[in-house]
Amino acid sequence: MSLQNGPIEPISSLCGRVLNVGQDVNAAKLQTFLLRKDVTLEERKVASDYLALADQLRRLPSYRHMLSQMRKDEHCIRCHTLYTEEANNWHSCTIPHVFRSPIDAMSVDESVSTHVDDNEEEHVAEYDSLCCGDRVKLKVYVDGTQVPDTDQPCFWGKHTTNVKAVIYNDPNVKACHVIAEQCITKCPCGAEDTWILEDDGME
């Protein structure tokens, strides 16, 4: 099946249509559709033509090159993990909040706020995060339980190689430290939602 002749649709219009179609047509939904008993032969022909054009698209040299680039390992300069652009999404790069390693909640010093929790029984210490200050706190109960006051990470988004897209800080978002062409910077990514730093900071 050949592509139809005619004027080329503007890129902005094409991209809009891709987004609209992509919401309703994917491999799983199309397969489910084809397996339905109420699908007519004419409707199946439409699906067949759609797949034929899609097959032509994925065989285009430029498209194949794009796929090879998207499947190449990249180094995220925010979380310092390897990723592929093909699998990159808005949940891929997660940076948890970080806190200094808490001391015994029964003997907190003057730099740590203490108060009675809502149940008016258990005293807790509250530690400001090193990344977001007093906007995010870590509660440390008398029994040693440590609970952040949010279930949201410090950053949640896509991996990137663009330095302009990253806001660096010292506690949990550090720039690449390269030795022998390899980045050795460590990041709290992949750890639990709350990362507790030792008193001397994160190496």
Secondary-structure topology with pairs:
Blueprint: H1 11-24, H2 27-34, H3 41-59, H4 61-70, E1 74-75, E2 82-83, E3 93-95, E4 97-100, E5 113-116, E6 123-129, E7 133-141, E8 146-148, E9 155-157, E10 178-179, E11 182-183, E12 194-197
Parallel strand pairs: 4-12
Antiparallel strand pairs: 1-2, 3-9, 5-6, 6-7, 7-8, 10-11
3D structure, described in words:
It is a single chain. The protein is an alpha+beta fold and 203 residues long. Helix content is 25%, strand content 22%. It has 4 helices and 12 strands, in the order ααααββββββββββββ. The chain has helices at residues 11-24, 27-34, 41-59, 61-70; strands at residues 74-75, 82-83, 93-95, 97-100, 113-116, 123-129, 133-141, 146-148, 155-157, 178-179, 182-183, 194-197. The strands form 5 sheets. A 4-stranded antiparallel β-sheet has the order 5-6-7-8, with no helix packed on it. A two-stranded antiparallel sheet has the order 1-2. A two-stranded antiparallel sheet has the order 3-9.
List keywords for this structure.
alpha+beta, four-stranded antiparallel beta sheet, 25% helix, two-stranded antiparallel ribbon, 203 residues
Compact summary:
This protein is of the alpha+beta class.
Distance separating the two termini: 59 Å
Helix fraction? 25-40%
Taken from the alpha-carbon principal axes, the silhouette is elongated
Name the poorly predicted regions: 104-111, 199-203
Major beta sheet, specifics? Answer: 4 strands, antiparallel
How many DSSP-defined strands?
12
What percent of residues are in strands?
15-25%
How does the helix and strand content classify structurally?
alpha+beta
Radius of gyration: 26 Å
Major sheet: arrangement of strands: 5-6-7-8
**Mean of residue pLDDT values:** 82
Number of helices: 4
Which H/E pattern describes the elements? HHHHEEEEEEEEEEEE
